[in-house]
Amino acid sequence: MSATVEETIQYASQESPDSPRRTVRVGICGLGTVGSGTVNVMSRNAAEITARCGRPVEIVQVGARRDNPACDTSQMQVSREIFDVATNPEVDILVELIGGTTVARELILTAIENGKHIVTANKALIAEHGNELFEAAASKGVTIAYEGAVAGGIPIIKSLREGLVGNRIQWLAGIINGTGNYILTEMREKGRTFEEALAQAQALGYAEADPTFDVEGIDAAHKLVIMASLAFRMPLAFDKVYTEGISGISIEDIRYADELGYRIKHLGIARGTEQGVELRVHPTLIPQRRLIASVNGVMNAVMVSGDAVGPTLYYGAGAGAEATASAVIADIVDVARTLEATPDQRVPLAGVAAGGQGQNCVLPMDEVVTSYYLRISAHDKPGVMSQVAKICSDQGISIEALIQHEPAEGEALVPVVILTSRAKEARLREAVSQIEALDTVEGEVVRIRVEPLG
Amino acid sequence: MSATVEETIQYASQESPDSPRRTVRVGICGLGTVGSGTVNVMSRNAAEITARCGRPVEIVQVGARRDNPACDTSQMQVSREIFDVATNPEVDILVELIGGTTVARELILTAIENGKHIVTANKALIAEHGNELFEAAASKGVTIAYEGAVAGGIPIIKSLREGLVGNRIQWLAGIINGTGNYILTEMREKGRTFEEALAQAQALGYAEADPTFDVEGIDAAHKLVIMASLAFRMPLAFDKVYTEGISGISIEDIRYADELGYRIKHLGIARGTEQGVELRVHPTLIPQRRLIASVNGVMNAVMVSGDAVGPTLYYGAGAGAEATASAVIADIVDVARTLEATPDQRVPLAGVAAGGQGQNCVLPMDEVVTSYYLRISAHDKPGVMSQVAKICSDQGISIEALIQHEPAEGEALVPVVILTSRAKEARLREAVSQIEALDTVEGEVVRIRVEPLG
Fold first, then answer.
1. 3-class secondary structure, A50
2. Residue B208 annotated as lining a ligand binding site
3. What ipTM was reported for this prediction?
4. Which residue among A286, A294, B41, B329 is least enclosed by CB atoms within 10 Å?
């Protein structure tokens, strides 16, 4: 929607050099970790933010069920009813930091209905309801900014949507869950089991009491679909992400990966192919020499490869009060600067202007082609390797590398570790099920995908 | 300057949903590596670029003294006189890719005078004449975009100016010259001397016949002052950068650095202090565990640390036809999207709105505080170490680490390697000159600064 002529004239006159632009009025809903961080950073850096934005930006209202002693809201109008912020005519930008997908969705729809621009760090909401919210915002001529929803303070949304706009994105791959990366780092560096490392992450406050969301890849899937929608100009497709967690990763596999020149990381991967876009979150072996292989602890990093720019990487804190506040404030400044601009002068919500979104379908997982790390527990008998090689060969899969050590003292089973050539997921699964059916093989074959990221 | 009311009305009507926005007309000056890369990528990705920009963007004129067979300009109006592009009323955006600082400066000033927006990848021009050009652009209400001037395709200008806008930047440090980084990588990985590695870089086309610009840090200094001006809201201060090249780095020092847990990288560093901003380009020991220590070959990376976000890193190809074209096109799209916007709706030229630029002075090098790596050639006699320790101690410098191996067979001199505590440059220089005056010490002391980047 374009501004009316009257509005436009009013804006133009506001912007004459003689009358400074009016203060932009921000309402913040939610005073949890990110909410209080945002209040604190905006207060501390108010002068810088005004200078960079070209106009003052002020928090005029906070909506929160209770105060948070981590921040000072004594100079702000505080409402216990967050919907008051969504309907307050004195608010230009509503910043949604309450989390969740039900009340937050209603809050944002109400604010949009009342003509407010939206800034949010809510990845679940954007991933699951973004298509609906973007449509509502477009119909009211307002914008929704969501840099804080992916990878905390790393400006990855801006990089995808603006910085790399000249490229066809080929693929992106990210360590986008700090909890999972902390656990894998502890396992590798300190020889801890998954359970021990998880307990450590919980003790440090990096993991929730119920860690499912982080370790099973749901949080990473939320972030992945948001990035993929921008990279591949496609609607948000959270229900189509293939997701596999890290709870099955053992120290043994981390050690074998090291021996083969790889690290195991929990990656969110999106790749454009002729047949559709791959969308998958799973543990992945990546070559040690890739920069992203050295991203440790709770840090996040996203690799993006474009046809013109080649591989790029963006690294930083993926969570935390002030790191996420950094992204939220960048969004506030973007919106504030263009408050009076017409919608098509702003960066489009979904990365492309209306009608520009592609129909890219998501590639079914069976069709995805990758290499594989397999670990087989075999009886120490002649002929096992030739059986395994035959099964792989029949499926068009060749063996690129193999580790077989002598069995441990008194141990009847010997681990055989294989790196395969690239093969379709369906063929690999068939090969594995045949290998598992061999008399000479015990239990399940451990399977981890391998990505060169080159 | 704000748009007139008539103009504003015209723009508003253009943007109604019924009439699509008109094509943005680009004139490219210069058909060298980046110019031809830009023509190629814009042609190849035209559909994507239009979708992301929300309107068509077309190259309507090319100014170049000769054609470049690397790109097809047969569908474009080609002028042998580049100033024709600057005065062509059919051109909205002039893209300056001719390089150099004399004709390029005049070309841009002429284009600005004719009301055109500017996109340039010319780091020397922005670093040395940016203050003047920005003023000219501001007075005509047009913009100058220069993402391609720093670190090729990495969106570092956008990250500093927009993505991290909520932060007070504490420091930034970058590997921003691919040639130098290639040479240091070859020396470390293949045991080559500086001269051998340089010859190799020249053979591969990474280094010029006269490599001064790259290996002595002038190119890095250009890029550093551009980043520093955005990070610290200060005028461009190219003449105030301290610059030291890498031609004095020996394999011996690279090996000792390894032994101490460090890598030697040629960094551009800017740091805000109470007394002023440090601006320096020099070889630097950095801890091996920092991600940037693993950035090898011709790749670039910039670390930026902000008070809210903490340390972040941006990595990618720092040069090359299409990587730089990626940055140039991102700028073109930004300008095209906001072509009809008022100047204060655009991201300000120098990262801050008029009047927001600070008066930060550049800290004189004597006042800079860092740790140091020192390599001393000492006679293998008792008492040397106590003399050296006494001199350091008198200057308030303590010794944090020390390596002294036995002298080689038949060798009278033994290398003593020291890591010092943090000290002011002036005190360190005094200590070194006293050490060099010792009877027991031969020749000059090798000095390389150390940065924790933590």
1. helix
2. yes
3. 0.94
4. A294
